[in-house]
Amino acid sequence: xxxxxxxxxxxxxxxxxxxxxxxxxxxxxxxxxxxxxxxxxxxxxxxxxxxxxxxxxxxxxxxxxxxxxxxxxxxxxxxxxxxxxxxxxxxxxxxxxxxxxxxxxxxxxxxxxxxxxxxxxxxxxxxxxxxxxxxxxxxxxxxxxxxxxxxxxxxxxxxxxxxxxxxxxxxxxxxxxxxxxxxxxxxxxxxxxxxxxxxxxxxxxxxxxxxxxxxxxxxxxxxxxxxxxxxxxxxxxxxxxxxxxxxxxxxxxxxxxxxxxxxxxxxxxxxxxxxxxxxxxxxxxxxxxxxxxxxxxxxxxxxxxxxxxxxxxxxxxxxxxxxxxxxxxxxxxxxxxxxxxxxxxxxxxxxxxxxxxxxxxxxxxxxxxxxxxxxxxxxxxxxxxxxxxxxxxxxxxxxxxxxxxxxxxxxxxxxxxxxxxxxxxxxxxxxxxxxxxxxxxxxxxxxxxxxxxxxxxxxxxxxxxxxxxxxxxxxxxxxxxxxxxxxxxxxxxxxxxxxxxxxxxxxxxxxxxxxxxxxxxxxxxxxxxxxxxxxxx
Length: 537
Description:
The chain is mainly beta.
């Protein structure tokens, strides 16, 4: 029987009878709506000729999240005659993303990389926030306590062109241009984003050596969804990284499975003044001095250079992940210090774990240096470019997941999906700030695959500021303790179909305040809990 190409060699029509007289059809042909069998819309068959394929992906991501923040009641409190400085902390968020992705690629990818690929991924977001205080959802208190918002962002729009092969094992050099996702280190500490750029990607020695040279001309972000907006923010990010798999395996077989990473990041940020979609000024941050030494309106340019060394994998039975960054450069004007700053800061992260049958026991450590003296002209607080760290509980941890506002300063003590107390107005729309208190983190945790369908993760983290001089200056408050508190979290993920087509994720975290947090806020436990459902076709 003739077939148009080798991809469409079909199973024969065959029915067999079991002992009870019932028929059984062992070969399923599938259909265009069936994601589990051969389907032209998910790249199993060519859509043009015999080597051009189409991959369509549809995803619904639904999040329901309850949380508490330390919120100041403000001058227009939601409860008249309220005498307390802090108001009601509780909030409820419902967030819905609809992801539509289409990729058209050419090449026999069963044996070699794609010759050419074109991909576009728009994301439709609708979000609803219910708060307990005014002046949160909008700068205009007449907008009330609730907000409904929506946005459509282009998270991928790229062309991937295969330049040449570098060896008989299909080592390659490829050029990727357009809006694309990129994470520059193993755990997303420094840069993890979908943005507009050009990336030269390559590998060598049967994929043992890998490298990226990338330049991103950053798009601004939508305020409430975090998706890409349709304007540039005059920020350029340059990244070069190099990976070596099985590093030092020639010296010892213990290093087979350990990957070395060396990297350089350059953050050149000249972002202009910006009010966010809710009417709040976020560039420059509304904190400290509004004018420079010459009496001009403060504008802030950042020139930061990061040198990084890290590793991920296992050395014998020990699973190891580590990262170190050293950053130098300058801020043309820092709002807190009120003058130009020379940057010199450090970052260290380490996670070690071991597997005991189906349980992984892990210990975590992180240090981000803080600034000792806001007046000395040297900024010693570490800040990232745009990180999304998968570390010490990640999105299950309260301190990692939630932004904690620094009351009446218009900046965040820590931003959402970040670990650095950078005193930044916004992680996605604000500018890096290297005059900050820094962080110490010690963590213990355990991950367990209870069944092939069910995964559970537990974490407990002790948190401390590295320095408190910056906080004391900003809040005009003396002798603030370094102890932030203890962060406890648990997360559960269930895949009922044993695939990633249906995923339910639930998490809960709380921050038990230490002496330092009690001095900044009330003696109240902060909490967060969420339920997420991801459906993918």
